[in-house]
Amino acid sequence: KFTGLSIGADFAGFTLGASVGEDNYWDVALRYAGEFNGIRIAGAVSYAVMSEFNGVAGALVCTTNCDKEVEQWTGSLSIRHMPTGLFFTGAAGTRDVSNAQVGAATISYDADFYYVSGGIARNFFGIGDTVVYGEFGRYSGAGQDVYGLAAAGVDVEHWGVGLTQHVDAAALELYVTYKNLSL
Fold this sequence. Notes:
Elements: E1 4-11, E2 14-21, E3 25-36, E4 39-51, E5 55-57, E6 60-62, E7 69-81, E8 86-102, E9 105-122, E10 130-142, H1 144-147, E11 154-167, E12 172-182
């Protein structure tokens, strides 16, 4: 029985990967990680398609014979200036769903998200990095096939601030965070 196959290749900090799986799943991703002039960069972009499945496939359920298709793009980028410890992370993605079953109806919809975070990470006290950060994210159109919200889906915004203290000698992280979520 065939279940899946993954392949990958590395060159000059770039990694290209692809996979294919049972129930008509395939994806491809390009990643990069490197450091130059004191700036560390990591990023990725990916594309995936899941189609023609019946029954449960993760959180995506089709209880009858249907031609549901999920097409997804995602990407992320993280940058850290090593001498100062200043950092930024951003991510975004979109998901297009066709022929999803919601009760007796069949719908198509889009969902998307973006997320940003930034702060500073430095070893101020000699025991490990202290990280102070803020974050914001927006998620639009989620839950339409799960909750039957075909007209609009759910929009969620979140913001937060946090402090993490790394204790290198104990391989320990102590943290406090505040997050605000709104629908």
